[in-house]
Amino acid sequence: MTDGAMAPGLSGSASDPEMHVRTVESARFVGGQVPDLAEFDQWYDECGKQNYTEVERVPLEDLAGWRTDPVTGNIGHHSGKFFTVQGLDVRLPGAAVPAWTQPIINQPEVGILGILVKEFDGVLHCLMQAKVEPGNANGVQLSPTVQATRSNYTGVHKGKAVPYLEYFRDRDRPHRMIADVRQSEQGAWFHRKRNRNMIIEVFEPVEVLDGFCWLTIGQVHELLQVEDLINMDARTVLACLPFAGAQPADTTSGLDGFRAALMRSCEGGRGSRHSMGDILAWITDARTQYDDVHATMIPLDQVRGWRRNPEAIWHETGAFFRVIGVNVRAGGREVGQWMQPMIEPLGIGLVAVLVKRIDGVLHVLMHARVEAGYLDVIELGPTVQCTPENYDHLTPAARPPFLDEVLATSPDQIRYDTVLSEEGGRFYHARNRYLVVETNRDVPLQQYPDYRWMTLSQLGELLRHSHYVNIQARSLIACLHSLWSKQAVLA
Amino acid sequence: MTDGAMAPGLSGSASDPEMHVRTVESARFVGGQVPDLAEFDQWYDECGKQNYTEVERVPLEDLAGWRTDPVTGNIGHHSGKFFTVQGLDVRLPGAAVPAWTQPIINQPEVGILGILVKEFDGVLHCLMQAKVEPGNANGVQLSPTVQATRSNYTGVHKGKAVPYLEYFRDRDRPHRMIADVRQSEQGAWFHRKRNRNMIIEVFEPVEVLDGFCWLTIGQVHELLQVEDLINMDARTVLACLPFAGAQPADTTSGLDGFRAALMRSCEGGRGSRHSMGDILAWITDARTQYDDVHATMIPLDQVRGWRRNPEAIWHETGAFFRVIGVNVRAGGREVGQWMQPMIEPLGIGLVAVLVKRIDGVLHVLMHARVEAGYLDVIELGPTVQCTPENYDHLTPAARPPFLDEVLATSPDQIRYDTVLSEEGGRFYHARNRYLVVETNRDVPLQQYPDYRWMTLSQLGELLRHSHYVNIQARSLIACLHSLWSKQAVLA
């Protein structure tokens, strides 16, 4: 909330056309005095040594601080805070799998994911944090400035104060709100989970604490090419950074065709395959069609097809995910030791979009996707979002559309291909292969009524609002933005 | 869903800047061959004779087709369709009234409210219906082309087919989708009720059935000045009609200051007090603040402070509303006779906005309002929305902000002042005084953090999306649009 308190010389907010994201090619650090990415690596390694977790699996029944409700079987924290593991009963009339039950995380609190940005010598920098989470497969990852549940910052945790939180909570500071929007998280694992995604530009000097550093947008984009480095919470916030006007239009002339098409896609106002009105009507229609979707919380003991013993909860086929318990000993974090349940997914997932140049403008093929945990039935997901091995033994008809096309793609069509981690606070070693594949194929609407070609500008417009673009698609939007950087485009 | 099937010569959808609402001063009928509003009156009177309801109060216990659940006390239809009357338990920590329970209508189906529009000789016309509803205090009112619950059009009703429904359901017809968005209804009386608000432009000849007629936008605007004439469902759809570009900008020179400021407010792109980004951040902040609002369905028998006998359900103070039963005999409708429960509110409500010219652009003072039945905690309501007599005996501090200012306004500040009816299918004689009051006062944000000045263009932008603008505010937006017509502006 800026309450109209704009800084002198700045007009409008980030979402207005006049707001430009000032990226430049010359990437450099300011706060940490690290002039290039080689020195970043050194800083990052050092952070990894200072911030660590030792994670040990423990039986669900032995989780100190947590209890299983004797009546429902639900697993909750004794404070009543954080989250509970409950059951969900899903009815999807007309779908391939029209009904199922599953365990799900219920975390009704809206937390804050916030990135502080600041201009140094005309270059916009993001204050990033090297943060370790128990579910991370590789220790430290780059996180937003603030990544805090409400329990975190209201002190239920009994841990240290969350650094920089005051910038996101105190409205009287002179800052500019670039983005502030609640966005959903994994609808297959979370019941109606939302976090507030915030980007705030500050004008005053900011002390850089241990474990934090300023990176330019260009540097963050380069680091998005590295496996498991930029964490999910950072990616979703970065996706909300408006990119219209980030580059002068006339710079497209020197670019290769792909990057020029990408830039036009971000700019907006150019030929999009469908108008924004048509896209919104399509979403309304899809949400109305699936209006008899029911997702009701049930006792965890009443989920069918799942097995439970003192150790864990798992699906009888071994598919989907397991609910496990962990004991965490951490250095460099708010709290030194704790236990918690986590979700451990099966295998590495695939999150892929087909992209296509239509009249010189890059379009992304979005899927109107139902997930049980969504607040409003449907959100726009990537072209393909699944764990391929779940489909290994099924007939081609039962496989998700475009899955085989994406898997069979030739290397010269691949524009982005990196494995990235999902939220390490709730998910144990949850990793997805994020893939951008360029295609020339037609996608007839009659045959694929749940898919639409959209520009990045249209997705950016939807990202100003809640519940339109899912977390996996938001990650890919951050990755697509990163392809602006020359270094980032694959050969 | 247009699926890209644009009619030749038309580009983009209504929500795009190039779409102009083609209103003209010369109001005339086409379908009904009624050339002026005098003849409209004659046609309308005739419709009132052919379409009537005889409504008789009957005890809740005697409603044929309805039953009271012996365990919960909930009142439902034997088919399980239409709606149920249940209980709602509301917790609003920190509010003046932090907790209460109440009866509420649960109608999870998303119905269709649709207006068919068509150009005759360059003038856009709306196909309006003279429709009677049992709750209307005055018989027939002007309704959208289609006003149908899902039960209506899937035949649970066992009534006649809904005329013109095929235009809104059949996607293969050559038409242009001007608006298609789900919007909420009264959050105090409905639990999460939503209807799909649709405007479709057709190009083919349309047969005008008995009880329907084509009216220009200008005529509809004039009729909005008449008490209880344009019904709620028509008003909410009209509010979703985009008004940007409706008049060439240079026509403002001949207008009085108020109408010129109104036109600039609709046009957008001109000085708004707050940027759209700031408005969205303010809404995010408000929704996050009230995130611990809980509204849980409970058995109707468990509402506290309410009395029930075989006749009705009422609050022990006599305030708020009653749940009553009615027996309806209707002519000119789908079904000849039925019974149903209805909500009968206490007194005539007040729905008022303060408007102010800021740098020559009309701004409307909107209120971030919590209602128990909203899907997402808060929607933007008018400056004042209440039943004044509920506050007659309370101290000034307990009265809603701006209520006394609105009631004490001098006649020369009043731009619109008409009593209009709410939905007559569920509410019995529910009427509100709709009021637009121009002011010069300052509204300091520190003192009124839940209020913001907004332009009509900004409200129009929000109306492209669900759950931002409440039903009362949408009615007032339709009324504000109507003030464009010279005839409509009060002296």
Main sheet properties of chain A: 7 strands, mixed
User: So, the CATH homologous superfamily of the largest domain in chain A?
Assistant: EvaA sugar 2,3-dehydratase subunit
Portion of residues within helices of chain A: 10-25%
Assembly state: homodimer
CATH class category of the largest domain in chain A:
Alpha Beta
Low-confidence stretches of chain A: 1-34, 487-491
Which value, in Å, is the CA radius of gyration of chain A? Answer: 22 Å
* Overall outline of chain A: globular
Main structural class of chain A: alpha+beta
How many strand elements of chain A?
Answer: 25
CATH topology grouping of the largest domain in chain A: Nucleoside Triphosphate Pyrophosphohydrolase
- The CATH architecture of the largest domain in chain A comes to Alpha-Beta Complex
